[in-house]
């Protein structure tokens, strides 16, 4: 990247969150015309991209796998904010937003991001190489969390419908945050080497990434701008949420499409980061981003939604239907066959992308 390009990037990622926050202040609590909604949406997208950029700056400072953890947590904070914003005051029509968004995040990360990363790496090196120990453990955590929070509510009997009772929701929240904490401890402390990228020859990659890490002052600046961007994302999402809901309803699309739109919007920058890592032969970093985001999406979102349900009106539907449970089971089986060998080819990437395409198509046409 040239010096002029770097300067331009620093410039827009500095003023982007500030402009987005200003748009939030001006638009909050007002009935906006169509043009204003478009402008707010553009500010929201700029804030999302800026947030992930500043998360990457922080990640470059702290190193891998801490970098992937920073990105995953940043994206999940955005996701939780969007879900709560849409559910606040929405009543029964927003009862499935949390389920739809979390499930969409799992399918996007475990199939879309993983498939793209494997495809890009395999095209460059014929075979994508990664750590089976770390990826396998992360995948097992994803499958366990997804089953406990999205599948079990369909079969429990304490509460009518695919919902948890209060006690069951509390247990799921505690178990989710507990599993997430254990995963983070294993990833960053006890078995950190399992999550470090390896070269196509199977050797561990060096810590440096060609460019010098940012200074402490630059890192603290990015941390502040990251917080500003996250506030702007959450607030602007609340501002345009009625337009999203009205658009989906007027088009005659299923309500689950709202969750898919949220997850696609939030995870797009992280998808680009994973693809860039795969192009640099750091497939493990791509998998850390994908599976780490899926774990954070469930492990942090479910406890946050459980806490928010205390004051949110309306039911909280978490249980998946038969179609989505089949897709989740297929994802788990195929993902296990992908990560266990520690090596993957174009075929595995294509299979994951095919499952992702089926998920998107069936979301719009169930």
TrEMBL record:
One of its GO terms (cellular component) is plasma membrane. Its main location: membrane. It is found in: Membrane. It is a multi-pass membrane protein. Keywords: Membrane, Transmembrane, Transmembrane helix. Residues 35-188, 222-364 form the Sodium/calcium exchanger membrane region domain. Pfam families: Na_Ca_ex. GO terms for molecular function: potassium:proton antiporter activity; sodium:proton antiporter activity. The chain crosses the membrane at residues 12-29, 35-54, 66-90, 102-123, 135-155, 167-186, 223-244, 256-277, 289-312, 318-339, 346-364. PANTHER family: SODIUM-POTASSIUM/PROTON ANTIPORTER CHAA, SODIUM-POTASSIUM_PROTON ANTIPORTER CHAA. This is Ionic transporter y4hA.
């Amino acid at each position: 990247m040239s010096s002029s390009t770097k300067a331009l990037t620093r410039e827009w990622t500095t003023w982007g969150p500030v402009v987005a926050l200003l748009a939030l202040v001006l638009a909050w609590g007002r009935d906006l015309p169509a043009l204003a909604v478009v402008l707010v949406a553009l500010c929201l997208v700029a804030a999302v991209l800026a947030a992930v950029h500043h998360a990457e700056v922080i990640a470059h400072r702290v190193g891998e796998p801490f970098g992937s953890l920073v990105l995953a947590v940043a994206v999940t904070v955005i996701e939780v904010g969007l879900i709560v914003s849409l559910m606040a005051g929405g009543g029964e029509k927003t009862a499935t937003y949390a389920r739809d968004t979390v499930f969409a995040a799992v399918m996007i990360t475990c199939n879309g991001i993983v498939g793209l990363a494997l495809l890009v790496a395999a095209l460059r090196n014929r075979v994508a190489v990664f750590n089976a120990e770390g990826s396998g453990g992360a995948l097992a955590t994803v499958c366990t969390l997804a089953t406990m929070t999205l599948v079990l509510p369909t079969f429990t009997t304490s509460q009518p419908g695919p919902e948890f009772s209060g006690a069951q929701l509390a247990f799921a929240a505690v178990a989710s945050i507990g599993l997430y904490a254990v995963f983070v401890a294993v990833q960053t402390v006890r078995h950190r080497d399992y999550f470090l990228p390896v070269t196509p020859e199977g050797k561990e990659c060096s810590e440096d990434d060609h460019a010098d890490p940012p200074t402490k002052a630059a890192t603290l600046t990015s941390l502040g701008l990251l917080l500003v961007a996250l506030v702007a994302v959450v607030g602007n999402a609340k501002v345009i949420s009625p337009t999203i809901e009205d658009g989906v309803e007027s088009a005659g699309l299923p309500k689950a499409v709202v969750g898919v739109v949220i997850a696609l919007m939030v995870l797009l920058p992280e998808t680009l980061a994973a693809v860039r890592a795969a192009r640099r032969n750091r497939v493990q970093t791509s998998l850390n981003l994908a599976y780490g985001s899926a774990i954070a999406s469930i492990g942090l979102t479910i406890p946050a939604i459980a806490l928010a349900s205390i004051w949110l009106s309306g039911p909280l539907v978490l249980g998946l239907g038969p179609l989505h449970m089949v897709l989740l089971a297929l994802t788990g089986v195929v993902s296990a066959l992908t990560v266990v060998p520690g090596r993957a080819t174009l075929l595995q990437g294509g299979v994951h992308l095919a499952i992702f395409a089926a998920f998107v198509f069936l979301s719009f046409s169930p």
